[in-house]
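One record is set out below.
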Amino acid sequence: MSVVIRAALVVLLLLALLIASAWLLQRRLIYFPDRSAPPPAAQVLAGGQDVSLRTGDGLDLAAWLVRPPPGTTDRQVGVLVAPGNAGNRLARVPLAAALADRGLTVLLVDYRGYGGNPGSPTEEGLAQDVDAARAYLAARTERLLYFGESLGAAVVTALATRHPPAGLILRSPFIDLPAAGREHYPFLPVRLLARDRFPVRDHIGGVTAPTLVVYGTADSVVPPAQSRAVADSAAGPVRVVVVEGADHNDASLLDGRQLIDAVTELAGGNP
């Protein structure tokens, strides 16, 4: 009997250590920044410009502003691109180029801790980062669209509750971060442990701006059912674009024709 009790205590101790580690290290399981500084914007993007965003808590964040190329109709619409949880703005060059070719001005944001920027990412910190990005872009364009990629969809949905945009684009959104985390860490009490929650479905219920939700049917990171649930909860008019066979990081969900056409239509232009 004592052997059984000792074994149970060992199991409980190991479980406690696992949960404590998950609590302390959870942000390393959420954010995967490429901290290296990308090259100057003009080297990789026609019409690209290096800009700096000043956050409310005093950080200076590097970003790229990309204007439509010469000869393209400038729609005077700005697209704030909030990325997912990995990489940096260099990986979003195809998206920025495709949108700029449609006459849209694009601001590629890198959060704190990403792309050579100071600081460390948190839910509160990312909110301050996109607040700074919105203020910068609003001063330079007539209408704003927010484009959020996965984690970025959560960031811009929260932004839309503070500063309503002309339109909201959510690419592969999850219901909330604990719901997404539970898919990958089913053995942990994710909802109980979560410090950053990003409640997309709760926020989208208060957003009346026209909303576009885009997701792939083969998404292995964010279950398609979660993206659909976000669309179903939108308070305003919503359009859903389903990309058949697309996984979370496929090119079709970065700069694919279905995605770019849908964003152009939301911006008020023909594909």
In short: The mean pLDDT is 90. The first helix runs from residue 2 to 30. Residues 83 and 143 are 20 Å apart (CA to CA). The two ends are 73 Å apart (CA to CA).
